[in-house]
Design goal:
The protein has 132 residues and is mainly β. It contains 2 helices and 10 strands; from the N terminus they run E-E-H-E-E-E-E-E-E-E-H-E. The strands form 2 sheets. A 7-stranded antiparallel beta sheet has the order 7-4-9-3-2-1-10. Strands 6-5-8 form a 3-stranded antiparallel beta sheet, with no helix packed on it.
């Protein structure tokens, strides 16, 4: 029996959850349910072209985005920033944020929460549909 097999994650094998409006998907990769990581949650978040996310806030967790591909705009509080492939974004806990995909391709974030968030955004995810 392997000891760390659940610590090596292939995103092609991870579940994919789709928002009710089909504008975005999320694939949890590392976390308590995926591999027993209680101190963080990571995954891939995809926003389709022409779409925008809902405003979001995590009062108890900081978040990091690494832009895997695509481009768009990110609101942090009342400030707007252009984001594109290769950029890294730090979102302090308690800061409202929202993403707009202005490009022609999916805008993909690899996200990291530390510690794992609780609250409304986690409850919202319960309404998502598992598509893979």
């Amino acid at each position: 029996m392997t000891k760390y097999a659940n610590c090596v994650i292939d995103p092609k094998q991870a579940p994919v959850w789709e928002a009710p409006d089909r504008s975005r998907t999320v694939s949890p990769l590392i976390g308590p349910d995926e591999c027993g990581a209680d101190e963080m949650v990571t995954g891939l978040w995809i926003l389709r072209p022409g779409e925008r996310s809902e405003p979001d806030i995590h009062p108890d967790a900081a978040e990091i985005y690494f832009v895997v591909c695509g481009e768009g705009r990110l609101l942090l509080g009342d400030e707007e920033y252009t984001v594109s492939k290769g950029m890294t974004i730090y979102i302090p806990r308690g800061v409202v944020h929202q993403t707009f995909n202005d490009g022609d391709e999916d805008l993909v974030y690899y996200f990291i929460f530390a510690p794992p968030p609780t609250g409304p955004s986690r409850q919202e995810a319960e309404n998502w549909t598992k598509i893979q």
